[in-house]
Amino acid sequence: MILEYGNAWYNLGVALTIQHTQEEAVALYQQQMERTSAYAWAWGILGNMFFDQEHFEQAAEFYQRQVEVIPNHETTWMSLGIVLAHQGKYPEAIEALRKQVGVKKDHEAAWHVLGQLLEANNTIPGAAEAYQKQIEVLPEHGQAWFDLADVLTHHYPFEAALSRYQQLIDHTAAHAWAWDFWGLAFEQQGHIEQALEAYHQQVSIEPKHPDAWAHLGDAYISLGMLKEAIDAYQLMRQPGKIWRWRLKKREIWIG
C-alpha cells in the first residue's frame, strides 16, 4: 500500500501546508488518516515532506510519532536520527541510529550514518566498529573501507590498525581495492612509506589493474624514487603519454 499510495500522501501533505497553517494542515492530515484507516507510515511520509523542506524539528516530531506506533520500522529510526543530527542533537541522533541497527542489523546505510555521527562525536572505537559492520554487510562499499582505514590510521597504532584491517579483508574476501583505500588513507596523512606497502599489496593481488600501478607510481614519486615510479607507470599498460603526463602533472617532466 505504501508503494502504491505514498506519493499521494506526500502530495496531500504539501497541498495542506500550502493552504493552511502548519497546525491546521497536520490536523486535516490526521483526519484523513483516520477516515482511510491509514497506517502509521503516513506519519513517516509527512516527516519526509518536512525534511525535504528542511523543517527538521517538525520532521523529527512526525518520525517520532511513527516509531511510537511501529517501533520496529525498518527505516524510520535512521530518518529520525538524521533530522536530530541536523538539529545538533548528536546524543539523541546516535541513540536513534543504534535503535535502527538493533531493529535491522543488516541496514548498511544506518551503520554508515552511525559511524559518521560517532566519529563526529569523537567516539572513535564505536565509529570504527560501525564502519566495520557496514563492510560486513556490504563488502563492495568502497567508501566504507576508506572511512574505516581513515579512522584506524588516524587513531590507532600502525601495527594494531593494520592487523584489524587485514583481518577484515580476510574475513570478507575483499578485493584488492581494499588495500588501495588503505594506501590512500595513509597517503593523505603524508605517511608515504606505509601507503607504498599497501599499494604493493594491491598490485600483488590484482597486477592488471591500471589504477593500482598508478597509485604505486605516485607514491614512489612522493619519495623521490623516479626510476621506480616510471617502472610502475609503464606497468599501467597504458600508452607512454599517460605516464609521462602523470610525471608532468607532478612537475617532474623528463622530456
Describe it for me?
The chain is an all-alpha fold and 255 residues long. Among the domains are: 1-11 and 38-104, Serine Threonine Protein Phosphatase 5, Tetratricopeptide repeat (Alpha Horseshoe); 193-255, Alpha Horseshoe (Serine Threonine Protein Phosphatase 5, Tetratricopeptide repeat). Helix content is 78%, strand content 0%. It is built from 15 helices and no strands. The longest helix is centred in the first third of the chain and has 18 residues, at 2-19. The chain is elongated.
Short description:
This is TPR repeat protein. With 255 residues, the chain is mostly helical.
Q: What key attributes describe this structure?
A:
255 residues; mainly alpha; Serine Threonine Protein Phosphatase 5, Tetratricopeptide repeat; 15 helices; TPR-like_helical_dom_sf; Ycf3/AcsC/BcsC/TPR_MFPF; TPR repeat
What is the fold's blueprint, element by element?
Elements: H1 2-19, H2 22-36, H3 41-52, H4 56-69, H5 76-86, H6 90-103, H7 108-120, H8 124-137, H9 142-155, H10 158-172, H11 177-188, H12 192-205, H13 210-222, H14 226-234, H15 240-249
Rg, Cα atoms, Å: 24 Å
Structural class: mainly alpha
Tell me about the largest β-sheet.
Answer: none
The CATH superfamily of the domain at 1-11 and 38-104 is known as: Tetratricopeptide repeat domain
How would you sum up the global shape? elongated
Helix count, DSSP H or I runs of 4 or more residues? 15
